[in-house]
Each structure stands twice: as C-alpha cells, then as structure tokens.
Amino acid sequence: MHPLARRSVTKMNGLGNEIVVLDLRDSAYLLDAKSVRAIAQAPDLGFDQLMVLHAPASAGTEAYVRIYNRDGSEAGACGNGTRCVAWTLMRDTPHETLRVETRNGVLACRRDGERRFSVEMGRPKFGWQDIPLAKAVADTAAIPFPIGPGGAPLLAAAVNIGNPHAIFFVNDLDAYDLSVLGPELEHDPLFPERANISFAQIRDRNHIVVRVWERGAGLTYACGSAACAVLVAAARRGLTDRHAIVSLPGGDLTVTWRESDDQVVLAGPVELEFETILESRWFEDAA
Questions:
Q1: Which residues of the chain have pLDDT under 70?
Q2: Helical H runs in 148-247?
Q3: 101 has which bridge partners?
Q4: Distance separating alpha carbons of residues 127 and 132, to the nearest angstrom
C-alpha cells in the first residue's frame, strides 16, 4: 500500500486558486513528483498547489510547509495556499495568529474574519541573482521582451517574492493571449528556475487588474504571490501606492507593501470545498 493511502486531505480554494492541504506532521514521509502528480490527477482533486504540512522545523511555528505545483515541481511560496493552511490549523482553536515555515522563511498568519486571513509574505528581492535571472540586466524593473505588437519590446518587471515573477504592465489585457505567451515566457532562458508570468493593467493608484500564468500550473483564477509581486512592481515604478486591491479572475486580494519593515502582506478569503481520503489505486499508474 502506498504510504499516502488512506490519508485525509482537505480541498480548498482561495478565489478559485485550487488548493489541497495534506497534513503529514505525524510522518517523516516526503513526497516525490510522481506522488504529487497522482494526487493532482485523482477525481475532483485537481489543484494548482498542494500544501503539505510537516512537523515544525523551528521553534514557535506550527508546521513546516512544502508547496508543490500540479506538475510535481516545488514552489517557494503560495499566498492563497498559506491562507488555506492557516484556516486548517486554526479552525478548531481560538488562536487568531500563528506562524508557519516554508523554504522562503517563517510566515506570520492572522485571522481577519471567519473565512478571511492575511499572511506576511516576506520582503521582495530585486537583485538579478536573487530573482534569479540567468545574467545581469541593466534594470530588473524594466527588462525588454520582443512580445509587443509587431515584435516591439514590452518591458517586464522582475521580482522574487518566494517565487520568481515577471510582470508586464499593459493598457489592454485582452490584447495579449496569456495561454500562448505564458508558457513561452515561463521557460524563457532568462529565468533559470522558470517564472510566474503576470500581465497587469493599472486602473488607479489603488486598483490593479491582473491575469497570471503560474509556473508549473498554467492559467489560474488567482495567484497570491503574483498579486504581491504585481503590487510591489507597480509601486516601485511609481504607478500605484503601496496598498492596492489586486483583481484577478477569481476575485479581489488586498496587498500592502509596508514601509516600516518592507514586508508584503496579502489578505483575502478562503473556501472549504470538501475533505476526502486518498485511495491507494490513485498512485498505481501515476506518470
């Protein structure tokens, strides 16, 4: 029998960003890519990210969280998924705050309402080595790519908020087919670890509309780390203030880039869909 067989999982979403939470705090088992893909292919469990809880690695944290994309690759951050983890860990407790750890560091989470949570996503990184990029560029806030009309250059702002992100600010989101451009840009040689690709339209200084191609997952209704990256990139260019509503196909997230400590805070709702048990047969023929 597969080590994950008969394990309980929780299916959730954050604004349509499909999340599965698997609690392995009582086990030393580490998932491989094949097991991740098997869960993603199970009936009704298709996810954008799988959040796997392990025993805490640092004092003062509730869990060490490994984050997997549906293709089996591991991610460094998932804001919507972390809010789902916070709900999972707080639902039977009176606690209003907790801390979890990911490979990106310790993240503080807070309950803002019955199904609304906020999470401190960390400090943004702008250095080309930190994003990372394959080579130095003149300005990580304005990297030209020949994807505009007629092959004209379109500038990308690159930033790391747990994951590498590239953001293109455009006047008309409908003028760009992200289903085509997304996979091409995700795998561009400039991004040695691939990148999350966002196209963003500024509505005003406190409102941005965004579409996201998420590395390892594809088009998504919402991506929390991308929402954070977009706000940071916009504020860095002076296009918005440091607090804004970021509207994605699944709904609105609130992002604040605090001046006091450089932390980026993501807030938004979570939704419980169902809980189920993993079946051994799902792992038998996983690719």
A1: 286-287
A2: 178-186, 224-236
A3: 64, 106
A4: 8
Number of Cβ within 10 Å of residue 144's Cβ equals: 14
- Catalytic amino acids? 78, 223
CB–CB of 201/171 below 8 Å?
A: yes
CA distances for 262 relative to 36, 119, 257, 287, angstroms: 34, 14, 6, 42
Torsion of CA 145, 151, 153, 155, to 10 degrees: -50
Length of the chain as a residue count: 287
Residues 53-84: tens digit of each pLDDT: 999 999 999 999 999 999 999 998 999 999 99
Q: Which CATH superfamily is domain 8-122+270-283 in?
A: Diaminopimelate Epimerase; Chain A, domain 1 (3.10.310.10)
pLDDT given at position 267: 98
Hey, where are the domains in the chain? Answer: 8-122+270-283, 143-262
Q: Is the pTM of this model over 0.90?
A: yes
